[in-house]
Specification:
heterodimer; A: 5-stranded antiparallel β-sheet; B: mainly beta; Immunoglobulin-like; 7-stranded mixed β-sheet; globular
């Protein structure tokens, strides 16, 4: 059965801390690994990773994929209270003509002032 | 910036009733999806749709569920006879193409409460 596992499930840090969120996956027809940020309702896209070892960066956020060990990490440096959210990892399963996303349970990040 | 919209934001219904959840994907997108998230649980894939037909569906998407793109604009999810366990947040997503980008853009969701 395809699955995506995220850890930790929740994390409380103080502003300025650096955090690392983990995501491991076992997906039959894996194509890409996506990270989303979910604050209130809709998940908003952060990164899509398709190749191993290539870091993607956006401001204080960065992410990398290891296709050999089947995991990805999302780093957030100098955290701010606005980073508080649930961070979702999703593996794109591309078995046919159109893929679907298999989500992990998410990591709930709380950044305290 | 174009975005996926969904209506209603919250739907309350009695068990056994039919509901239709509506989505307007981003206008030039070709691939459409429905996901659901039961409170406190992970987001789960329901169905994908392209070229006016279902591409893939999960085990959750049984005979009680159907999807339609009636007018080239709206993308709807119908639940024929709702059950208590259908209570969840339902997200619609759209994607430009399968080749150029795998990014799926999510709508704000419809919270379905079945009483």
């Amino acid at each position: 059965e395809d699955k995506v596992v995220q850890s930790p499930l929740s994390l409380v840090v103080h502003e300025g801390d650096t955090v690392t969120l983990n995501c491991s996956y076992e997906v039959t027809n894996f194509r890409s690994l996506l990270w989303y940020k979910q604050e209130k309702k809709a998940p908003t896209f952060l990164f899509m990773l398709t190749s191993s070892g290539i870091e993607k960066k956006s401001g204080r956020l960065s992410s990398i994929l290891d296709k050999k060990e089947l995991f990805s990490i999302l780093n957030i440096t100098a955290t701010q209270t606005g980073d508080s959210a649930v961070y979702l990892c999703a593996a794109l399963n591309y078995g046919g003509s159109q893929g679907n996303l298999i989500f992990g349970k998410g990591t709930k990040l709380s950044v305290k002032p | 910036e174009p975005e996926v919209t969904q209506t209603p934001s919250h739907q309350v219904t009695q068990m056994g009733q039919e509901v239709i959840l509506r989505c307007v994907p981003i206008s030039n997108h070709l691939y459409f999806y429905w996901y659901r998230q039961i409170l406190g649980q992970k987001v789960e894939f329901l169905v994908s749709f392209y070229n006016n037909e279902i591409s893939e569906k999960s085990e959750i998407f049984d005979d009680q569920f159907s999807v339609e793109r009636p007018d080239g604009s709206n993308f709807t999810l119908k639940i024929r006879s709702t059950k208590l366990e259908d209570s969840a947040m339902y997200f619609c997503a759209s994607q430009p193409t399968a080749i150029r980008s795998n990014e799926q853009f999510f709508g704000p969701g419809t919270r379905l409460t079945v009483l």
